[in-house]
Design brief:
This protein has about 500 residues and is α/β, with parallel strands linked by helices. The chain has three domains: about 100 residues, Udp-n-acetylmuramoylalanyl-d-glutamate--2,6- Diaminopimelate Ligase, Chain: A, domain 1 (3-Layer(aba) Sandwich); about 230 residues, Mur-like, catalytic domain (UDP-N-acetylmuramoyl-L-alanine:D-glutamate ligase); about 160 residues, Mur ligase, C-terminal domain (Protein-Tyrosine Phosphatase, Chain A, Alpha-Beta Complex). The strands form four sheets. The chain has an eleven-stranded mixed β-sheet, with helices on both faces. A six-stranded mixed β-sheet has the order 17-18-22-19-20-21, with helices on both faces. It has a five-stranded mixed β-sheet with strand order 1-5-4-3-2.
């Protein structure tokens, strides 16, 4: 494909060279450049691609895409093109390079502070069950056909998105559902994609800081971009920030929620907690009228499922198909049940800050457990305040807390645990400290009482433990099976 074809739709000026040069691939990482490729100079948080131009030319790059003044005479035989924003240009160039696969898929993009991951899996499960093979891109992984690839970013770079889309099309997939983070929108990773459906789950104060969003207003503004690049917006009508999210939107809008007047309304919630099982049922009225049963707890699960129903109703999915698919959906590391006993319920969840932990513990309280037992730790080389806050939350909302190690990174686990204990001591909550996470889980299982709900918080979908810069294999599901095997043979 020629550079001229790849630049179709991009506003640019040619500083030197020919646009008819054939391009073998696109790169933004100077280390990966190959002969005959185009290098796109991205200005990132820690490095500037413009400083690597001579290096990539020496590796065989035949075109340079820049956003700064560059003396093309320094790069003889190389085409140099200037654009206003190289990230934005890369998104449009990637779509062109892969032949616009987004136009061959039914595209669903989901943004929001919470609920994105679970809702993407719910939608995928329903569509797959209805004979609509669906790809997924999100926080945990990307799924293309039968290939599952762990995720590095919630929303990958635009090149990776279109490469995945092309693979999805080539293996017969008809739709894709993806998490669209505020960072991804801000960095133009989805620029040029006109989503068939854009979704807004909710908004809370998060991701505000020097390396993310400068203010809540900026955070909202970035998320609102999705509703100027989708055909239909399906939004949480109960969220207080909805008006700001939809400011200047260009899409049709449908609402879901618990309030009167929603296009998809949930009501009559019933929570069930039996030995080793926890669930929720609720009624839906409006554009869909049915009752849904979930093997997941809480009001946030109701919102996520309601959203999934609203989205999938636009793809000729029957009510019966929705009900069956949602009844059995589970998401790795998101209130994930692991069967260990008929006496108590054990769950794994990714809650790794005070806000998330408080939300999940308040939800589980509504199921009236005999005891609510929380096992968690905190990551090293992160804010110490998180440790105090999580200790206080668990002490206040749990009947018993098992404090253990998470990803200590370059800190001593015992020192992190000591900080958590300081927060715990602000409450009357009972606790024990067990540094080794496997031994902590063993303690939770062997001391479980009838009617308990035990939650292992913090690790979620992660399958490693990071210690002194090394990620060692550690999956809580594997640890649980090892413990059960050891207990069975010990007996």
């Amino acid at each position: 494909m020629t550079l001229a074809q790849i630049l179709d739709g991009v506003s640019y000026s040619v500083l030197g060279g020919s646009l008819e040069v054939e391009i073998s691939d696109l790169y933004m990482d100077s280390r990966k450049v190959t002969n005959g490729s185009a290098f796109i100079a991205i200005i990132g948080a820690t490095s500037d691609g413009h400083t690597y131009l001579k290096d990539v030319v020496s590796k065989g790059a035949t075109a340079l895409i820049v956003s700064e003044n560059v003396d093309y005479l320094e790069y003889p035989g190389v085409t140099v093109v200037r654009v206003e924003d190289t990230r934005y240009a890369m998104a449009l160039m990637s779509a062109n390079f892969f032949g616009h696969p987004e136009k061959e898929l039914f595209t669903i993009g989901i943004t929001g502070t919470k609920g994105k991951t679970t809702t993407t899996y719910m939608i995928k499960n329903v569509l797959d069950a209805c004979g609509i093979p669906t790809g997924l891109i999100g926080t945990i992984e990307s799924i293309v056909g039968t290939v599952h690839t762990p995720a590095a970013n919630t929303t990958p770079e635009s090149y990776a998105i279109h490469k995945a889309f092309r693979k999805m099309v080539n293996c017969g997939m008809k739709a894709v559902v993806m998490e669209v983070s505020s960072q991804g929108l801000m960095l133009h990773r989805t620029a040029g994609i006109l989503f068939d459906i854009g979704v807004f789950t909710n908004l809370e104060k998060d991701h505000i800081g020097p390396h993310e969003h400068t203010s809540m207003e900026h955070y909202i503004a970035c998320k609102s971009m999705l509703f100027r690049q989708c055909k239909k917006g399906i939004v949480n009508g109960d969220d207080a920030h909805l008006e700001a999210i939809l400011r200047d939107h260009t899409c049709e809008v449908e609402t879901y929620g618990l309030s009167e007047g929603m296009d998809y309304r949930a009501s009559d919630m019933e929570y069930s907690h039996e030995a080793g099982r926890i669930g929720t049922t609720f009624a839906i009225t409006g554009k869909v009228n049915t009752r849904v049963e979930l093997g997941m707890p809480g009001l946030f699960s109701v919102y996520n499922a309601l959203c999934a129903v609203a989205v999938t109703s636009h793809l000729q999915v029957t009510t019966e198909q929705m009900q069956k698919a949602l009844q059995h959906v589970h998401v790795k590391g998101r209130i994930e049940p692991v069967r260990v006993s008929d006496k108590f319920t054990l769950l794994i969840d990714y809650a790794h800050n005070a806000m998330a932990l408080e939300s999940v513990l308040k939800t589980l309280r509504e199921y009236h457990p005999h005891r609510l037992v929380t096992l968690f730790g905190c990551g090293g080389n992160r804010s110490r305040d998180r440790r105090f806050e999580m200790g206080e939350v668990s002490g206040r909302l749990s009947d018993f807390t098992i404090i253990t190690s998470d990803n200590p990174r370059f800190e001593k686990p015992e020192e992190i645990i000591a900080d958590i204990v300081k927060g715990m001591k602000k409450t009357d909550g009972a606790y024990i400290t067990i540094t080794d996470r496997k031994e902590a889980i063993r303690y939770a299982i062997t001391h479980g009482e009838p009617g308990d709900i035990i939650i292992l918080a913090g690790k979620g979908h992660e399958d490693y433990q990071e210690i002194n810069g090394v990620k060692y294999p550690m999956d809580e599901r594997v640890l649980i099976q090892e413990i059960l095997f050891e207990l069975a043979h010990k007996a």
